[in-house]
């Protein structure tokens, strides 16, 4: 005759095995779904495609101070001004520009394909264009606290729309944390001063 203690132990083990089997049945499909969906599994600030067709994230630029702006290539005024400011700042940074990643994130993925971004940004050396799916772009803007909205053309042409959007230049530290937000028309030397300050080893870096 088995003792009560022996029977209790067997029932306890059986219950534990059943609980583990139930947990496995629940978790395995969820984990598989995340593995098949890289966007859901990603937890950084952005997951986009650069102008060379390479998938990148904020972690791609780890170790560098980041200058980030949002815009689009059909922008008539603000974006060219921003890009000129960034280009002039990069020239003034000299050798220090290798310590900086300068990113232009398009909020118009419908028209700004990687190839088109690359052609457009050829006039602004040192600036990397990023785009992606509408969902990826929306996530990047949300995580970096930028806003944009599509505006239909007055003549009703569906291809002639414009985009209202945030115009600030964001400065992020080497770990991707927020440091500063500067106007798009800032003087390049002022931007350089801020960046060089953050490049110093003893600089106090901000938090997101």
Automatic annotation (TrEMBL):
Q: Which CDD domains match?
A: SCO (cd02968)
Question: Where, in this chain's numbering, is Cu cation bound?
Answer: 75, 79, 165
- Carries keyword Secreted? no
Q: Where does the record place the Thioredoxin domain?
A: 33-200
Q: Write the record's keywords in alphabetical order, separated by commas.
A: Copper, Disulfide bond, Metal-binding
Entry-linked InterPro entries: SCO1/SenC (IPR003782), Thioredoxin-like_sf (IPR036249), Thioredoxin_domain (IPR013766)
Pfam families (UniProt xref): SCO1-SenC (PF02630)
Cystine pairings recorded for this chain? 75-79
Query: Can you tell which superkingdom this protein's organism belongs to?
Result: Bacteria
Q: What GO molecular functions are on record for this protein?
A: metal ion binding
Q: PANTHER family per the record? A: ELECTRON TRANSPORT PROTIN SCO1/SENC FAMILY MEMBER, LINALOOL DEHYDRATASE_ISOMERASE DOMAIN-CONTAINING PROTEIN
**Recorded family membership:** Belongs to the SCO1/2 family.
Q: What is this protein called?
A: Thioredoxin domain-containing protein
What organism does the record attribute this protein to? Paramagnetospirillum marisnigri
């Amino acid at each position: 005759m088995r003792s009560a203690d022996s029977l209790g132990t067997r029932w306890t083990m059986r219950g534990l095995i059943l609980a583990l089997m139930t947990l496995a049945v629940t978790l395995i499909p969820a984990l598989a779904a995340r593995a098949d969906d890289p966007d859901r599994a990603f937890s950084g600030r952005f997951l986009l495609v650069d102008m060379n067709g390479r998938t990148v994230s904020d972690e791609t630029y780890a170790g560098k101070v980041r200058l980030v702006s949002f815009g689009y290539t059909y922008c008539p005024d603000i974006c060219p001004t921003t890009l000129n400011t960034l280009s002039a700042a990069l020239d003034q940074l000299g050798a220090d520009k290798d310590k900086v990643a300068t990113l232009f994130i398009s909020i118009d993925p419908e028209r700004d394909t990687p190839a088109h971004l690359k052609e457009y940004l050829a006039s602004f050396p040192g600036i990397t264009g990023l785009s992606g799916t509408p969902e990826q772009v929306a996530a990047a803007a949300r995580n970096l606290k930028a806003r944009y909205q599509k505006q239909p053309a007055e003549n009703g042409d569906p291809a002639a729309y414009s985009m209202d959007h945030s115009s600030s230049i964001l400065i992020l530290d080497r770990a991707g944390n927020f440091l500063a937000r500067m106007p798009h028309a800032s003087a390049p030397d002022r931007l350089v001063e801020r960046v060089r300050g953050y490049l110093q080893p003893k600089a106090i870096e901000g938090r997101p």
